[in-house]
């Protein structure tokens, strides 16, 4: 019997990892990359943009091309943007990372990889998003992983 737990699948799979700021999406993606998986963090490299102050949105043509052209192995995509639900049917799974609000606020205050969440206004925005956006993410998720103890 062969142990395949650490080998990368040849099967085509696309997994979205989503959640509020401070739920360790980037940390999860880094770990997956170290295990040899292909990852895309939509916070970077022009995958999404802030449209006229109305929120962050994926570049739909670019993400659609990525999702339709992916042909082998598991692709993990991370992000939390206003139009991500439009692509849910193209994912094999939608994984919601969550944590207690207090944990999220502590993480964003002390993280060094992203400046979002450092100002009072941004922290208030995070509080509002946890109340209003996270329930929508939860409703569309295949599975939820509570990151509070991580």
What topology does this entry show?
Blueprint: E1 13-18, H1 25-34, E2 38-41, E3 48-50, E4 56-58, H2 60-69, E5 74-78, E6 93-98, H3 101-110, H4 120-132, H5 134-140, E7 143-146
Number of helices: 5
Strand content: 15-25%
Supply Rg. 16 Å
What is the residue-averaged pLDDT?
89
What is the general shape? globular
End-to-end CA span: 33 Å
* H and E order: EHEEEHEEHHHE
- Total strands: 7
Q: Which stretches are poorly predicted, pLDDT < 50 over at least 5 residues?
A: 1-5
Strand order of the largest sheet: 2-5-1-6-7
Largest sheet: 5 strands, parallel
Task: Determine the structural class based on helices, strands and strand pairing.
Answer: alpha/beta
The helix fraction, in percent, is: 25-40%
Task: Tell me about this structure.
With 150 residues, the chain is of the alpha/beta class. Helices cover 33% and strands 21% of the residues. Strands 2-5-1-6-7 form a 5-stranded parallel sheet, sandwiched between helices. The protein has a two-stranded antiparallel ribbon with strand order 3-4. The longest helix has 13 residues, at 120-132.
Structure summarized in a few sentences:
The chain is built from five helices and seven strands; from the N terminus they run E-H-E-E-E-H-E-E-H-H-H-E. The protein is of the alpha/beta class and 150 residues long.
What are its keywords?
alpha/beta; 150 residues; five-stranded parallel β-sheet; two-stranded antiparallel ribbon
């Amino acid at each position: 019997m062969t142990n395949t737990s650490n080998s990368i699948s040849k099967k085509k799979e696309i997994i979205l990892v989503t959640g509020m700021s401070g739920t360790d999406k980037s940390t999860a993606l880094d770990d997956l990359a170290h295990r040899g998986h292909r990852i895309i963090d939509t916070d970077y490299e022009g995958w999404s943009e802030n449209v006229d102050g109305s929120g962050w949105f994926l570049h739909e043509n670019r993400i659609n091309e990525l999702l339709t052209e992916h042909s082998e192995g598991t692709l993990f995509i991370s992000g939390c943007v206003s139009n991500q639900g439009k692509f849910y049917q193209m994912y094999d799974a939608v994984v919601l990372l969550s944590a207690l609000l207090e944990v999220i606020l502590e993480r964003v205050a002390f993280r060094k990889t992203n400046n979002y969440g450092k100002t009072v206004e941004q922290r208030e925005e995070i509080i509002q998003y946890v109340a209003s956006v996270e329930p929508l993410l939860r409703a569309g998720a295949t599975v939820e992983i509570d990151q509070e103890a991580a």
